[in-house]
TrEMBL record:
This is Uncharacterized protein. It comes from Flavobacterium potami. The keyword Coiled coil applies. Residues 20-65 form a coiled coil. Keywords: Coiled coil. It comes from the Bacteria.
Length: 228
């Protein structure tokens, strides 16, 4: 009987030990699997954290690039129009003042003499002064075109096309201005007020065209800056 009990106890103990070992193996396997899952999760989190940081850096870099591009282009556009405004003001004021002085001198010298030689001298002097004005206007126009060439390096195709139209309008204005200046001595001498007025009207129309393209160019540049 005792041997039977001992056998039963041993059998139960063996079964318990076997069960314990099996369960422990399962638990160890689960722990190992859980550790793998945790490690894998951490790796995935680390990977996506790095990718997120990279995306943030790329986004910040893109924003910085766009900000630099915007500010750089804006500064160059503003500088160009400040130059253009100053050029227009200075050129208009200077031309009007010099023109008034030339005409006053001509009228004084021409009308205060009856001698043909002195009258011809007054006409020649006026023509020479008009040529100087024309030469100065040509130099100023070259400066404007140099400035527009700088803008072409950063501008869109639409802006470049409008710059071309503005340059053509400047050329037309200069041509009309030169004609007005060159015609003026003989027109004044002949008292041809009608032709003087016609030349002046043509010059004003050319000036309006310059302003039109100038305003359209500003609108295009603003639109281009908004798209950056």
């Amino acid at each position: 009987m005792e041997l039977y009990l001992i056998g039963v106890i041993i059998a139960i103990s063996a079964l318990y030990i076997k069960t314990y070992i099996q369960e422990k193996a399962k638990i160890d396997a689960l722990k190992s699997e859980n550790k793998k899952l945790i490690d894998q999760t951490e790796k995935i989190k680390s990977k996506y954290s790095k990718e997120l940081e990279e995306l943030k850096k790329e986004h910040q870099l893109e924003i910085s690039k766009r900000r630099y591009k915007y500010e750089s282009k804006r500064d160059q556009y503003v500088s160009f129009f400040q130059f253009l405004d100053q050029f227009t003001k200075d050129n208009t004021t200077k031309s009007q003042e010099k023109m008034a002085l030339i005409i006053n001198d001509f009228m004084t010298n021409f009308l205060n003499t009856q001698e043909h030689e002195h009258q011809m001298k007054a006409i020649t002097t006026m023509s020479n002064e008009m040529q100087k004005l024309t030469f100065e206007a040509n130099k100023d126009l070259i400066r404007v075109k140099q400035e527009t060439n700088t803008i072409r390096l950063i501008a869109s195709e639409k802006v470049i096309q409008k710059l071309d139209m503005l340059n053509l309008a400047f050329d037309k204005t200069l041509a009309d201005s030169n004609k007005t200046l060159n015609d003026l001595p003989s027109l004044i001498m002949n008292g041809d007020d009608h032709s003087i007025n016609q030349n002046q009207k043509q010059l004003e129309e050319s000036g309006k065209l310059v302003k039109k393209y100038n305003d359209e160019l500003i609108a295009l540049m603003r639109e281009e800056l908004d798209e950056i």
